[in-house]
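User: I've been going back and forth on whether these two constructs are worth ordering. Before I decide, could you fold them both?

Assistant: Sure. I'll take them in the order you sent them. The first construct and its structure tokens:
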Amino acid sequence: MREQISGSVERPKIPDGFFEVSRDGQFLLLHPRLPRFAILNETARFIASLCDGRRTGSDIAKAVSSHYGVELERVEADVSSTLRQLRSAGMFSDRDTSHERSYGRVNKRVHLTITGHCNLRCKHCGAVSSLHKRDGLSTSDVKGIVDQLSTVPDGSIAITGGEPLLRRDIVEIARYSAERIKTIISTNATLVTEELARGLGALPVIFQVSLDGASARVHDAVRGAGAFEKALAGIRLLQAHGAGAKVEVCRTLVGQPDDDFDALLELGERLGLGGIRFLFLARLGRAEDNFDALNPTLDSYRRFYRRFFDFLTDSDGRLPIGGGMPGLYIDVPDDEMWCHVGEMFEVDPEGKIYPCSMLNQPEFELGSIWDMTLQQAAESDKFINLHKVLAGRMETVEACRKCPFKNYCQGGCPGMALVDNGTLLATDAECELRKELFEELFFEIFPKLKSKQGLSSSEEIQI
């Protein structure tokens, strides 16, 4: 009995304007308005090209039979399978335009700079502007922010500086916060003492320690002599008092990060870290003066990401790694920004609220914690107007409109676009490199990871 063609009566349609990228006989089909994709071989690509909304599944099977000179009975199963997979990949869907998009967000997280003071003078510090601000947040002010976040699902706080361990009330703040919401402390770890470790180590807090290399030679070149050994000593003290794998490392990509990639992973495994996060260098603060000397070359970035991708596919999860290039994402929700602007506000040492840690210039100030709640800031006209601009960047930025990856990167980081180009309505400086890396992700990395959670929503179609 001949197989019934899936969608034999329906007329499947891939929306007009879809993008196509080819490599080595494979074709990456990208939806024009939604984060959807399918990886096709030549036959599946031809079938997809016939999904114009006029042909039924049976019509498509007949066209394939005629095109390849193959009997209809032999192609029906392949056509049926391909149509099912294209539908599963979301290639027949389109954006719902029956309702107007809403703006404003639910604030769930805060990047809280509790002090602008620091014991180091790192060459790449982007928070140096906080050094010129007075520490105006009392212990009760910080607790009030925690209380607000405790009322929303998945509320969390990242306590940073400057160097947050300079605050005499850091243990009290950390304990109060950790009892109520997910709490992260970002620290250089050089000031961890036995007393501090006893007070902090056993708390349910994630410690993100800045470690910019696997050796003193690399780390101290940007953070100062002796910083590496002090940071390692601080990590070990925290772990000795219960922190264990709650300690993670953040490595800013400066210099030649590919050179000691393997050594840093080995160090992380040896220390029993909970993970390593890689952060892009931002042209902010002291980093602006040192940017050209510190920013990795394009070839160094390419080598780094080759090692990064190889580790992701070969490591079997022995040490979680993440972060890196803003906008380099495959799993992006419909009609949502990957950027957490508004969902994660910046609150500076003076209590001023900003949309995010990259948009902390005076013109973006939304108010202060004494004038409004965090959610009131997220619902303010000023933030909603900003959200409209940011959410529409992939259609308003000229370089984005015709880019096949626009529904994924969405123009990159708007804050980095601002510091790189002086305007939000531009791509960031990583645009061309990100396009290269997207091709690597879709054609090489995704097929290896597609069975893992979060990477199985689209299909690799081979018939």
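The second construct, handled the same way:
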Amino acid sequence: MCSEALLEFEQSLAGLSASNELLLNNLELKADLNRFVSPKPAAGPQTLLAESDILSLFAHYDYTGDNAAVCPACSGALQLLTASCCVDYVTQQRQGPGSALERDYWVLFLRNPYRTFLTLPHYSKMAFHQMGVPFQLRRLVWQKLLLVNQKNCYELPPEASMIFTNFQHSYNHRICSQIKKDLGRTFPNVAFFQQPETVDSLLTILNVYANYDLELGYCQGLLFLVGTLYQQLRSSELTFHCMCKIMECESQLRSIYVPALMLETLDQWRRQFCAIFSQIDAALYLHLLSFCDMSVFLFQWWLSNNLIHAPNLSVNNRIVECCLVEGWKVGNFKIALGLLLQNRLILMSFGPGDEEVVYQHLLNESKWGNVINNTTAFFGDLLLSWDDTLF
């Protein structure tokens, strides 16, 4: 049951926040896709998640084993705990979420995400975009959000395991060879992705998906998405199932990877994006249009779901959460717009003849600039500052 304090805060946010249309539409799309899920019979009495369970997850979390968590003070990896600020941050995190409201919200969400989004849409946007999902809960939250349904059932359905097993055969030799090549250059500086177990799991997931979706097959950009999902979910079957659900839920996202539809769909996205861009910042849009081919960087961003060249996995996780909440196409558009606006000063300083410099800047990590130091300002303030009706 939702606490009175949360309901009061939701009402106060309703007077300040913009529309929740994107969040609620995306929720219903996913819930409708998962409407045929059949809950497994309960093995015994079912107990609801309690506040003490949340506190226990924070207290006993393996902070030095998380290769994505960073210290907000120094941006250093918590794995290393090399600075006193990192040690202090972990000590504080072991106490649990920062406020009673935050604890209450995540208890409600993990009990029933569908009902929580419907009841607290404004607070949900704030929790996911401004505060960010607590990394101690991220694995649970992602699974719930990827498989959200009205029946509140989040077990992997038996048919998903059957499909994953049945398609593990007769891999396409050309596709398998290409995946192996790409694995070595995807997140090359992250130790987790160099581990043999991770490499084998990603190879299996992508080969099985190529067998399952013959029209799509394999595209290098998928590896960034599958890798980021697997890094959190740590299950090949679950990652494969979630990948299928993402592609089934948003046919336009799938179309940018299907060879026969890729160029047509990407060009359609470009036209739609430019129409939005011109309304948000006409001066920057016209300036870039005068000497740049925006498809050069936009297509690479979208094919990787903006996960390529992100400064660290913590930012990648925020990107995925933005897309999970508002939809993958909308999320890709918003992040691309945000990156262009973040780089406005430097982009406006270039002109005809500087195209290659612009492309080089926007196609590497430098485009993220100071976002790494304040992800809340980017994901929570900038990306939420635009009217939903634009998208």
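Notes on the second construct follow. Residues 292 and 356 are 9 Å apart (CA to CA). The mean pLDDT is 92.
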